[in-house]
Amino acid sequence: MSEPTTIRWEQDGTGVVTLVLDDPRQSANTMNAAFRDSLTAVADRLEAERDSVRGVIVTSAKKTFFAGGDLRDLSRITPDRAQQAFDSGMRIKRDLRRIETLGKPVVAALNGAALGGGLEIALACHHRVALDNPKAKFGLPEVTLGLLPGGGGVVRTVRLLGITDALLKVLLEGRQYNPARALEAGLVHEVAASEEDMLARARAFIDAHPESRQPWDVKGHRIPGGTPSTPKFAANLPAFPANLRKQLNGAPYPAPRNIMAAAVEGAQVDFETAQVIEARYFTELATGQTAKNMIQAFFFDLQAVNSGAGRPDGPEPRTVRRAAVLGAGMMGAGIAYSCARAGIEVVLKDVTLEAAERGKAYSAELLEKAVARGRTTEAERDALLARITPAADPQALAGCDAVIEAVFENPELKHQVFQEIQDIVEPDALLCSNTSTLPVSLLAEGVKRPEDFIGLHFFSPVDKMPLVEIVKGKRTGEEALARAFDLVRQIRKTPIVVNDSRGFFTSRVIGRFINEGVAMVGEGIDPASVEQAAGQAGYPARVLSLMDELTLTLPRKIREETRRAVEESGGSWEPHPADAVIDRMVDAFGRTGRSGGAGFYDYEDGRRAGLWPGLREHFTRPDAEIPFEDMKERMLFSEALDSVRCLEEGVLTSVADANIGSILGIGFPGWTGGVLQYINGYEGGLPGFVARARELRETYGERFAPPALLLEKAEKGEIFTDGPRG
Ligand code: NAI
User: How is residue 127 annotated by DSSP?
Assistant: First the structure.
């Protein structure tokens, strides 16, 4: 056993032992091997010195109380190490249990965030006092990484809150609470105003409860709200799996299912047996591929992307003080809101003042809702709104150090608006366009300083969507790229950086998904089945409904432009099987999508009212059956393969950008870990993926041919990665 260095033992003259979590090798405490050893040593010592110990305070010397599991360790657990994973989980559970049942009061003094394993340690304490720090978060977010809390978190939240609340408020969504909300939710007992106050309260609890025990260790304890053997509860039980199925829509996320099983099964047995059940369900998840994919994307890749892997090192960081947003339509209004929320002064310009004011009214609406829900205060609302100045006169843009253009998708108009303002804004203002399809390099030709011109592609609705795709034009300078990156971080969004190309990365790749779904309709497959395949593959949006949202005329326009460009450059143009379906929908049936009132779906008062029955009549053929698995994989493969081509062509320059951009921007299913992690994690690895792509190509067409880069990596035994990792 190594030295117990990660938990410091401090004892005062009054018999109170303070256990200070303080891993000397890391900036945050995690459940690594050193911690496990330290915990065992501490439990041994507490038992040995029991008579001289009056109580225990558990706190931390780091900014956060405890960060949780060691994700690098966790992502290395292979199926052949299942027993080892099970044993090490059981060991932590047993050691926490030994401290919990010592017969002495144990208090968690939560000086900062306690997420995952951190909250599990706190839950094993009899009393929890949280420091009132609005940045501190408490919760069990394991589900968001495809895991379940394996340190007793399921067992204890169920006993503390009851099955229903434990599942809905804590476990299934991985919700995170600030101290005040954690108090309301029953996760902590007290909130303290200062560190001193926190420790004083901890000591007061020890003084008042010399023989503290957990509620579940008191004879006669019943789980709040009952258990499956209680008649009233049992009557509601069938609703749980049904609701879960509805929520997941058949998407392959194993964690919620395991969490529910651990909670319900664990509630019907004694504490120790429940711990074993939890450990089994945990091990199953930890050894599986989904958790590995999700840890890679939502932890490692996200961290890499946000920490500036895509930002050039040279330029000094800069902050934007006053931004011009051109065009106060749907996107401009959302961009103005996001900038103002981050403290930036915004001049929101449209053709008329009325239009600009309508754009500002959008922020007012969002803020009204936020105030009503207690998410912001009236004072904050007023301050934010005061930062947005609607304008029609270009002169109002004087002093702006960044411009974000979001007028209609028309290159001449975009040139014109930049010309109108380029001599009014600051002489070195950053010039950004939110174009979703036009080449950034082409737009840059219309401004005096093309080196300061860059694409900043937001997603709709801007206030909710976390991603911004930064598009570097041919002449965009390093300074502009760094400033665009800093601006995206300033407004608290996640930036990926791509090189200019038709549709960039996101619009191009999501087009493959949509085309694949539409092509299936053309093959005569039942459209309801196509929609279901998208859901079961894990896509948050159904493919045909997404086509309707984007409008059917848009891909036609893009197709024509691309065809012209390809043919002009001497290339040959391959039509996609989806093209004919879209043409027929628009030309023969006049169905252009939601904005036109009719598309693949019927609409009533702008709301979807079911798939258009005409699809079955005009397209569906009863003999057009293909395996359901093929339907799902055609969607997933078409996007993954095109992402490899984006990497090959230099549109993408990083694997992390591909994974994060695909999940956060265009709804590629999170369980895959993103477009390229999906390939890494496919059964049989890259060679397995290649073999399957060849099968799909054989049956469905050349578009599934594995690109050279994929073949090369598969042959060399490599995976898609930006460098050394977990
Ligand atoms: P929109 O039609 O809602 O808004 C465009 C606004 O620009 C209108 O308010 C219009 O009055 C204004 N405008 C027109 N000429 C102007 C001028 N000379 N000066 C100032 N304002 C002027 O369009 P939306 O959807 O907001 O799109 C704007 C841009 O964002 C387009 O380039 C679009 O391709 C892009 N985009 C759209 C996304 C979407 O989901 N709708 C997603 C990402 C980018």
Answer: E
Q: Is the pLDDT at 346 greater than 90, yes or no? A: yes
433 Cβ below 6 A of ligand 1: no
SS3 602: strand
Confidence of residue 3 (pLDDT cuts 50, 70, 90): low
What is the per-residue pLDDT for 37? 95
- Our mutation pick for probing the ligand 1 site, out of 357, 408, 506, counting the most ligand atoms within 8 A of Cβ, is 408
State the distance from the centre of ligand 1 to the C-alpha of 497, rounded, in angstroms. Answer: 22
> Cα(709)–Cα(650) distance, rounded to whole angstroms?
12
Q: Is 554 in the pocket of ligand 1 (CB under 6 A)?
A: no
Query: Which among 142, 190, 405, 639 is annotated as catalytic?
Result: 142
Q: What is the dihedral of CA 105, 106, 111, 115, to 10 degrees?
A: -140
Superfamily of domain 7-287 in CATH is 2-enoyl-CoA Hydratase; Chain A, domain 1 (3.90.226.10)
Taking the model in full, what pTM does it have?
Answer: 0.93
The three-point CA angle 689-658-702 to 5° equals 45
The ipTM estimated for the assembled molecules is 0.97
Q: How confident is the model at residue 562 (pLDDT cuts 50, 70, 90)?
A: confident
Please indicate whether residue 120 is annotated as part of the active site. yes
- Looking at residues 90-111, what average pLDDT do you find? 97
> Each residue of 283-322: pLDDT tens digit?
999 999 999 999 999 999 999 999 998 899 999 999 999 9
pLDDT digits (tens, 9 = 90+) for 366-378: 999 999 998 899 9
Side-chain-side CA neighbours of 57 within 13 Å: the count stands at 27
CB 454 within 8 A of CB 426: no
| Distances 390 to 347, 360, 460 between C-alpha atoms, Å | 6, 7, 21
> CATH fold of 507-650+682-716, please?
N-(1-d-carboxylethyl)-l-norvaline Dehydrogenase; domain 2 (1.10.1040)
Q: Is the shortest distance between the CB of 331 and ligand 1 below 6 Å? A: yes
Say if CB 547 and CB 514 are below 8 A apart: yes
Q: What is the pLDDT of residues 55-87, one digit of tens each?
A: 999 999 999 999 988 898 888 898 899 999 999
726: pLDDT confidence band, cut at 50, 70 and 90? very low
Q: pLDDT per residue over 140-172, tens digit each?
A: 999 999 999 999 999 999 999 999 999 999 999
Q: Is the CB of 407 under 6 A from ligand 1?
A: yes
- Testing ligand 1's pocket by substitution, the residue of 352, 436, 464, 547 carrying the most ligand atoms inside 8 A of its CB is 436
Q: Give the separation between CA 324 and CA 237, rounded to whole angstroms.
A: 54
> Which architecture does CATH list for 322-500?
3-Layer(aba) Sandwich (3.40)
* Residue 42: partners with Cβ closer than 8 Å, 6 or more residues away: 4, 7, 9, 19, 95, 99
Catalytic residue (choose from 100, 120, 405, 531):
120
Asked if 649 is an active-site residue, the reply is no
Q: Provide the residue ranges of all domains of the chain, joining segments of one domain with +.
A: 7-287, 322-500, 507-650+682-716
